[in-house]
Amino acid sequence: MNPHPLFTTAPAPRPARPAAAGLQRLGPYRLLQRLGSDRHSQLWRVQAEAETPGLLLLPIRAETEAESALAAPGRLGRIDLPGLLRGQAVDLGLAGPAVHLPAPPGPTLAERLAPGGGPAPTLAEWVGWMVELLELLAALHEAGLRPVGLAAHTVLIEPPGRARLLGIELAREMDAQGEGRREDLRLAGLLLYRGIAGHWALDEPDLSRAAARLDREIVRLGWALPQPVPAALRAIVNRAVDHEAARRYLAARSLARALRGWLDSHRDGEPDALNLLLDRLPAAGHLPARADLPQRLAALHRLEGQRLDAWIELLFDEPALAFELLRSLGAVELAGQAQGDDITTLRRAVQLLGLSGVRQAAASLRPWPGALDAAAAVALESRLAQAARAAHLAERLCPADHDGEAAGLIALLQALGELLMAYHFPDEQRQIETLVHPPPQPPGVRPLPPELAAQAVLGSSPQALAQAVARHWGLDEGLQHALQALAVDRPVRLPETRLETLRCAASAGGELAAGLPPQAVEQRYQRALGWTRGEAAQALAALGAIRPPAALPA
């Protein structure tokens, strides 16, 4: 195949400059200034007969016969996205197809980054531009198309600062193997990196050339950057350019969601994942009922009038039902504080609702396993069992002069975020686990902590999800604070209120249920909870003696 007359040397992007003497004209156009180029396209400022200067986007011709063809005009006509710039498709003969845009609404991103192009974009500005571009990219991918190429010269910044994409008329059909989608995500990750790092990854301005090196060279944000980068945003960027393809984002919409979540948090708004979760709750419920709940309710029916301990046992074992009681009763009846540091318990919920009320709450739960597939259902069951174990341990480890049932309830609430993630975002949860427990890493590259891994995937964290739902239920600020488990990498301080003591007991139960060594947990909490020596190990042994091992997570 004959080479494209303008792409014989595939020059890297450079500051805008006048056209070379030998390329003064191309068809009816006079070339005035080249604004950017890479292996896929060049952008020129041109002038046609009796017209003011405009922009001409020139794609290279297909490098091989197997490369995907231009999309049919009918398919393009059905795409109506506000961030796509519509131009006039032209045929330049041997030079190939092009797009002529008579009135560009603003500078290209390449011009914006050039010396004298204006102040450096802030992190929030760049992330906002990337969110817009990625949502456009996602819409094209979902239509089975891909753009001519994502590069600094194919993006225009329209006042007052909206990112728009050139070249929809040159969109190509997506290949069946999805290689085009993966290539676009590599380009998007590298463009994101440029804005956050302040320089091109691998010192290569041609994103397509840098993308070809991404699988064999490590690209990560350094620490000497033009402006401080928050840890959550750093995790998102590093994942987007990870040299292991399996750890990168799977779709443009996933990366857009993570960035929007960070941006919303940065602007003191609700991350996109939280809004998505709240939208799903009416249809999917908070959590599905475990498979044995009907049988356990029937057994409790025969014990009506007996002590309430059996009910508390059931509610600790069935977090979905405990949470439904919280939601149905509301903050005033169930979680109200007295004198600033006491809370009522699930026992109070059972007393207020009675057997019929508990049955009604159980009937409102979605049957197991909801919308989950088999693998996701197994993962959720394991997390539910771990949460139940944490609640029982918290009750046992709570000081005798405090309400152990309240400590168990708080332990369930501290597991709420992880449970919501496992039920509502199972695919994202698997991605998070891949980042937390990855295959062997290159020297100097460490696995991500769970909180940062969740930020990198969803732009939010399990804790933020739990906080949003707690506010949605109407729980007071005291309980919203208590449902934040204590950080395992920080020392435990002596609690100053009864509620803080319950929070400590709940956190200790959660750490033991997660498999932390009893000796380490005891050392952390001994002074705060007044434990005697060996109390954590004794609580574990007692729980194992009275509960069937099969009900506990592996």
List the helices and strands and how they pair.
Layout (H helix, E strand, L loop, with lengths): L16 E2 L6 E2 L2 E9 L3 E7 L6 E6 L13 H5 L10 E4 L5 E5 L7 H5 L9 H20 L2 E2 L8 E4 L3 E4 L6 E2 L5 H19 L9 H7 L17 H10 L11 H15 L5 H13 L8 H9 L7 H9 L1 H16 L2 E2 L3 E2 L2 H18 L10 H24 L6 H11 L1 H9 L1 H11 L13 H9 L3 H12 L3 H6 L15 H16 L4 H12 L5 H12 L8
Antiparallel strand pairs: 1-3, 2-3, 3-4, 4-5, 5-7, 6-7, 8-11, 9-10, 12-13
Can you describe what's shown?
The protein is an alpha+beta fold and 554 residues long. The chain has 3 domains: 17-101, Phosphorylase Kinase, domain 1; 109-279, Transferase(Phosphotransferase), domain 1, CATH 1.10.510; 293-439 and 464-551, Hypothetical protein af1432 (Orthogonal Bundle), CATH 1.10.3210. The chain has 22 helices and 13 strands. Strands 1, 2, 3, 4, 5, 6 and 7 form a 7-stranded antiparallel sheet that branches. It is elongated and about 90 Å long. The model is unreliable at 1-17, 62-67, 331-342 and 548-554 (pLDDT under 50).
